[in-house]
Write a structure and sequence with these properties.
27% strand, 15 strands, alpha/beta, 259 residues, globular
Length: 259
Amino acid sequence: MSLSQKYFHENEFVIKDKKLKYYLSPTLLKNNFKHGFFTKTSSEINLSLLSNRLNLNNNNCFLNQIHSNQIVFGSKTQENVKVKADGIVCDKHNQNLWIYTADCMPILFADKTKRVVAAIHCGRKGLENNIIKNIIKIFCSKGCLKEDILVAIGPSISEKHYLVDNKTLENFYKKFVSKETILSSDSKAILFNLKELVKKKYDLIPLNLRKYANIQLLKEHIPITNIDISNLCTYESNHNFYSWRRSKTFSRQWNFIST
């Protein structure tokens, strides 16, 4: 299975004499969804300023992200206590859903017919614990059809810079593979290669998170033509993105989709 990564559209604006760059998914843009994958310049800007400058809604929804598979509705995040979760689904028509990232994948979801939107923070643990499957299940419970669901995977760490030890890879393989799921021949080949890597017991092995997110989306019957995957690597682009693996920073960049 070749991973079809795309060039996302680059855009920018100025707040308080500071230039903020962000990227747009071609498919979400084509279907008129307000969204964006920001660079590191966004981390110091208040969300209210960002949303006002982008002419978004009044309600900014964000989380205390914990590398889980927990997903909440936007209204839950309006309470005083910051909710521990890694996914937000809209439940009103005036919500901006925000996810912050530094190497993990910011993944935006949108139903082009019902206009339901969602955002998740997804790394290795999110893939292991099926956060993608959970979010698709919520969309379906809202009456969405899988052929109408659009997905954009934003800038994240690339395969060659995400190295894991053999034990971590073995655990990932065990949790990722599901015997109950019917896989395509391409997906089976990828998982077979993963199994062979586990057997060889290398000290460090590159892991392509984008590829396995793509497999999970295809397993959930999201059409491949509905999936955008950014070719931007957070580790390689020090000028544009924060990266935990590169510098062990606690700073993050924002990503959003709006109803």
